[in-house]
Each structure stands twice: as C-alpha cells, then as structure tokens.
C-alpha cells in the first residue's frame, strides 16, 4: 500500500529502520568498549560517535590510533573506508537534491548505510512520493538508527570501564571487521577483491603507519573491478 502524508512517511521510515537495530546496537556497544580499552574518556568516545556516525570508519580510526599512527594517516584511512558515502550521495541526489540547503545538510549528516538502503528501496517502490514525504521517510529511518548508535556507544563505555584491563579486548576488533565484511562477499568480484586485499595487506604489513592497508585496499578494488569487467564482457 502506498504511503501518503508526511507523518505516515516518517513512521514508515521508523518501522523500516527498526530491524537494523539488531546490528547497530551491538556494534555501538563494541565500539564503546574498545574505545574505553584504548584509553579514550567517555566524552571523547561519545563525541567520536556523534561526529563521525560511521562504524567501519570509527573502528579503522581506533585501530590506527592504538598503533600511534599520525593524525593525517588516521583521517585519510577513515575517509577511504567511507568513500562509499559519495556514491550514496549521488544516488540520493535525484530524490532529495531539491531540498533547501539546511535540509540537505541534515540529510548529508544522516546518510548512513541503513538510511541509504531503506530510502533507495522505498523511493523506487513509490516514485510518486512528494519531496516532503521522501525527506520525512529518510528522517524516520535515521531517527531510530542514530540515537541507537549514540546510546549504545555510551552503554559500551560503561561496560568497558567495568572490564578489568588484564582481560584485554583487542581480539574483538578483527572479529568485528569480519562480521561486517563477511555478508558483503556475494559475488566473484567481491571475493577476488577481498582475497587480493588480504594478501596484499599481509605482504605490506611492514610498511610504517599501516600505509600498506591503503595500498592493499586500492589493489583489492582494482582486482574486484577487473573480475567484474571480465564477467560482464
């Protein structure tokens, strides 16, 4: 049934975003715990989640910060992880590009994997939605995802403070990345990209400041693109 009205669109966004909490909440807690383990104060950890609002980039930055990498390397690496947001933005422009500047700024801040995925499906399903309805739906998804991320980051901080330092939680970071990456390996191109990136990362592990990771990521993307090109030829 088609969604009609700004309020109805907003609440549909809330309902569609709710299932994502099953993933967002545990990762928010994990980030809070790991940030505490790394020595970040509660305010800094919460500010990190509020300002960045990107799990993969935050985990990447946290790992590099623990390795004492230069700030510029931390920033570049986090941006590289989040390059997909540029594609999300381009995909959302036909649907939300006519919004006033301040609303576009809000949408840019709230553009996450979950808001993009839900909105792209909804807009394709109901192309007759008005601009206000589309924005309301987008806000509906974000209004349940973002507070959940913030709140459970704080829960993770409080949990991490209660964990004795000798327990060590460093093992959780690679597990978190595996959990995020595993479901994305859906095609031969994805698998090729992952294999090349992992192999290159291991071979380049001696490069200072984890710069080998950036090179490995580039090689992985090139390998995936080439496999996809050959597959579609």
From TrEMBL:
Q: Which Pfam families match?
A: AzlC (PF03591)
* Protein biosynthesis recorded as keyword: no
Top-level taxon of the source organism:
Bacteria
Alphabetically ordered keywords of this record: Cell membrane, Membrane, Transmembrane, Transmembrane helix, Transport
Q: Supply one GO BP term.
A: L-valine transmembrane transport
| Main location (coarse class) | membrane
Q: Which InterPro entries match?
A: Brnchd-chn_aa_trnsp_permease
Subcellular localization, per the record? Answer: Cell membrane
Membrane-protein topology:
Multi-pass membrane protein
Q: Which GO terms describe its cellular component?
A: plasma membrane
- State which residue ranges cross the membrane: 20-40, 72-91, 135-155, 167-185, 191-220
Name the protein family: Belongs to the AzlC family.
**What PANTHER family does its record include?**
INNER MEMBRANE PROTEIN YGAZ
Query: What name goes with this protein?
Result: AzlC family protein
Tell me the organism: Salipiger mucosus DSM 16094
């Amino acid at each position: 049934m088609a969604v009609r009205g700004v309020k109805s669109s907003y609440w549909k966004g809330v309902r569609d975003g709710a299932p994502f909490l099953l993933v967002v909440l545990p990762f928010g807690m994990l980030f809070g715990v790991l940030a505490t383990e790394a020595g970040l104060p509660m305010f800094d950890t919460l500010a990190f989640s509020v300002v960045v609002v990107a799990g993969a980039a935050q985990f990447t930055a946290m790992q590099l910060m623990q390795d004492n990498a230069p700030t510029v390397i931390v920033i570049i690496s986090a941006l590289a992880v989040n390059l997909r947001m540029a594609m999300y933005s381009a995909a959302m422009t036909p649907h939300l590009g006519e919004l006033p500047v301040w609303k576009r700024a809000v949408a840019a801040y709230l553009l996450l994997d979950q808001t993009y995925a839900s909105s792209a499906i909804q807009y394709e399903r109901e192309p007759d939605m008005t601009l206000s309805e589309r924005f309301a739906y987008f806000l509906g998804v974000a209004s349940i995802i973002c507070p959940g991320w913030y709140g459970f980051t704080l829960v993770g901080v409080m949990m991490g403070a209660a964990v004795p330092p000798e327990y060590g939680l460093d093992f959780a970071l690679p597990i978190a990345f595996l959990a995020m990456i595993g479901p994305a390996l859906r095609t031969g191109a994805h698998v090729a990209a992952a294999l090349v990136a992992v192999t290159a990362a291991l071979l380049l592990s001696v490069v200072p400041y984890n710069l080998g990771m950036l090179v490995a990521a580039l090689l992985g993307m090139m390998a995936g693109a080439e496999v996809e090109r050959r597959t579609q030829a």
